[in-house]
Amino acid sequence: xxxxxxxxxxxxxxxxxxxxxxxxxxxxxxxxxxxxxxxxxxxxxxxxxxxxxxxxxxxxxxxxxxxxxxxxxxxxxxxxxxxxxxxxxxxxxxxxxxxxxxxxxxxxxxxxxxxxxxxxxxxxxxxxxxxxxxxxxxxxxxxxxxxxxxxxxxxxxxxxxxxxxxxxxxxxxxxxxxxxxxxxxxxxxxxxxxxxxxxxxxxxxxxxxxxxxxxxxxxxxxxxxxxxxxxxxxxxxxxxxxxxxxxxxxxxxxxxxxxxxxxxxxxxxxxxxxxxxxxxxxxxxxxxxxxxxxxxxxxxxxxxx
Length: 305
What we know:
Blueprint: H1 6-17, H2 20-27, E1 34-36, H3 61-64, H4 84-91, H5 102-112, E2 129-133, H6 145-149, E3 153-157, H7 166-169, E4 175-178, E5 191-194, H8 199-209, E6 232-234, H9 237-247, H10 257-268, E7 271-275, H11 297-304
Parallel strand pairs: 2-3, 2-7, 3-4, 4-5, 5-6
Antiparallel strand pairs: 1-7
Subcellular location: Golgi apparatus membrane; Golgi apparatus, Golgi stack membrane; Secreted
Family: Belongs to the glycosyltransferase 29 family.
Pfam family, one: Glyco_transf_29
């Protein structure tokens, strides 16, 4: 990989500012590896302990208008009471009427799973590197495995496998983000992150670790999942709404799993590597568009030669 020079970092900053959607259309057939790194102005002091920090992108108006670090990424009891607008929007995503009470579900969740303030330790002494890895066969032959495994966090999406593909996708998994319809067993050392598109998704999570009685949402789902209950986390519904409104500008109905994972990483990490498939279905940000694509690497390397 070509080193990130000062001129290269400036180019990335300008390109990022130009907008995600332009990049989707312009580069959707390129091999994907985007390493989001920006230059640190030494006169300002570092926003993290890394040489380059995601939050340095706040220098750009485009990023600044979208990135809101005050929105909670993960749900807990203390932030679990939803504003009325968040509750209406989130429950409006559901295709069926549920009799399950949200407050009761949250209480049950955090009697089973850690009720913590996750990843609120950002600051000048922290340098957390993260890799977000998609589940596409397009990573085959990429040989990104060793690079992926170098990151502190390796966040995998849905059912993306590693066994037998280690040289291309790595062997390390620290977090796996999923929802009931995409559930898989999660290694005991990794975090299970639930992406709840509906109240029943939260109810399913408690059922999967206790009674195992929920076998269907809008389709059949696994009644149980093997995972470490001490490492379970839940994406906050307000965070989903924030991504839909601020980042997607209300395109589609809600964020895809891939896009949501990407923005989550920007909030909890200081440097982020994106390893995704070269696929993007126009502006369809629906539940079915599971691959989010930014294709900067090939364009950047051409300009750095």
